[in-house]
Amino acid sequence: MKELFDLPLDRENTCSVKFDARKAVFGREDVIPVWVADMDFAAPEAVTRALAERAAHPVYGYTLFPESLYQSIIDWFRERHGWEIQRDWILMAPGVVPSLHAACMAYAAPGEGVIVQPPVYPPFFSSVRLSGREVIENPLIHDHETGQYRMDLEHLEVCAARPDARLLMLCSPHNPVGRIWSEQELTAVLAIARRHELTVISDEIHCDLTFTDKPRHRMLAALAGPDDALVTAVAPSKSFNMPGLGLSALVIPERDRRNAMKAVFDSMHLQQCNPFSVAGFEAGYRYGAPWLDDLMAYLQQNRDFVLQTVNARLPGIQTQAPEGTYLMWLDCRSLGMNDVALKRFFVEDVGVGMNPGISFGEQGSGFMRLNIGCPKAVLIDVLQRIEAALSGNRPATDQP
Ligand SMILES: Cc1ncc(COP(=O)(O)O)c(C=O)c1O
């Protein structure tokens, strides 16, 4: 299997955002793309086969969500996460980001507040703002000694107590800092939400991407009681590297809350689904587990290689091992560059396209997000280039 993940795949000219949008995003087509959160690996064979079989039938008509699809979700979460889902709790959705936006519309009125925990995946901000709701920031605490992040639960309580606060968007595991929230943290979140009558939408799209040497991921819903106002967003798209297929699931035990979400989707006529998404989604959950286990073993090696190399050989840059996700959060603050200079340094002097930390909120200033979901050879090249640029032609600092 290792050979499979080592295999370089040419993704150029496949309408890949990661590869084919480089000129538009970085101003150069030749940066090594280690940004957008998809991986450069072939999806599990079972997924490719299911898609090919569906494509072989030449009618691509309007498609429904088959019962077998719902069952694949139920089985996956029971077996993999010890979480029992009932069939009628599931609402299929066109993606997790659209679900975040829909949650703002369903559970907060225009002008009301939605709590997010920055630094965090940018659509957590944009879904709130674009839906006309107010962002309430509950920044994570960054421990400068260990480099680890944790929740500021005291401040979360203050945010939740605001009369306009309606919804909390949890990112679990957390993108970009890679935390798997502890049971204690998750239980505290549920208690705060309960005390202040907040709905929680827990984005657990990265729940399968966890490392065997780190704490186990706990689904928030598996810790919740029947009265908790909880919406869980999941998808196999990150787990089996098929996010372009665009499909996800919401699990909402409480009927009124489920109907409120459904009403938002219905108001936009979003009940339709794509025949390929259905085929890929179900095949991933049904047959993808062995591939996923191999993937995580490979990513663990990538993670350890990056961790060791960055901390030993790249002066001014530090990183920690993420507990989940295939994203690493590089602390570049000691390089002494502002965010514009930092981005320019990596694009122009290094030739690498990463996500600037500042796009995850002001708390991400001075950081860069590196996607390690690629053959190790790519990461060797990336780190060698950074090392060379740091030792050779260190750029002038601080000039935008
Ligand atoms: C935390 C998180 N949520 C959602 C998404 C995207 O979800 P979707 O493609 O289903 O809209 C991503 C993609 O990077 C993500 O990291």
UniProtKB/TrEMBL annotation:
Keywords for the protein's UniProt record, in alphabetical order: Lyase, Pyridoxal phosphate
Stretches assigned to the Aminotransferase class I/classII large domain: 37-386
Reported cofactor(s): pyridoxal 5'-phosphate
InterPro entries: Aminotransferase_I/II_large (IPR004839), C-S_lyase_PatB-like (IPR027619), Class-II_PLP-Dep_Aminotrans (IPR051798)
UniProt keyword Lyase present: yes
A GO molecular-function descriptor: lyase activity
Pfam families in UniProt: Aminotran_1_2
PANTHER family registered for this protein in UniProt: PROTEIN MALY
Protein name: PatB family C-S lyase
Organism: Marinobacter salexigens
